[in-house]
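mind reviewing this fold:
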Amino acid sequence: LNTENLSYGRSRHRQPVRVGVSLCYNINDRFGLESGITYTYLSSSLTSGSDNNRYETNRMLHYVGIPLSLNVNLWRSRWIDVYVSAGGLMEKCVAGRARTEYTVGGVSASTKTENVMVDPLQWSVNAAAGLQFNISRHVGLYVEPGVAYAFDNGSDIETVYDKHPFNFDLTVGLRFSLK
C-alpha cells in the first residue's frame, strides 16, 4: 500500500470568542430591551493534500455586530442579576487575514499571507442564561452562556457559522442599564 500519495482535506473551526458592550432599557422590574455592539473573533485551520505535498491555511476573521434581545429577570439583588434572554445578532466582517504555508516534497516551499473579507452580513438568533455582577446601580459585568443558530449568508468562505450553524457560545461584556 502506497501511503505517501494518500490525499486528505480537513477543516477545524474554533469556537467564536465574543465580547460586547450593551445598553439595556428596563421596561419594568422584570423585562428589559437590550442592544449594543459586539466584537467576534473567528479562527479556522484548513489543510489539504498529502503528508509530502500539502497546504495549510490559518484564517482569522474579525466581526462587529449589533445584538437586539429581550431580557427577563429571574432574580435580582443589589450585586447580582440572574436572567434569561432571547434575540438576534447582525454581524459584519470588518477584517480578515489568511496565512497559507505550502509544503512540497516534505519541505516548506513558500508562505503566502492575504487579506480575506466575508461580504454578506451574518444573521443569527440566540437564547442565553445570564449572570450580571453589578458594579453600580447602572453598570454591570455580564457573562452569558447560550445557544445560537447562524443563518446561511451565501458566502464562499467557510466559517464555523457554516460548518456548525447551531452552536453553543459564551458572551462576556459590560452592560449599562437605564431606568
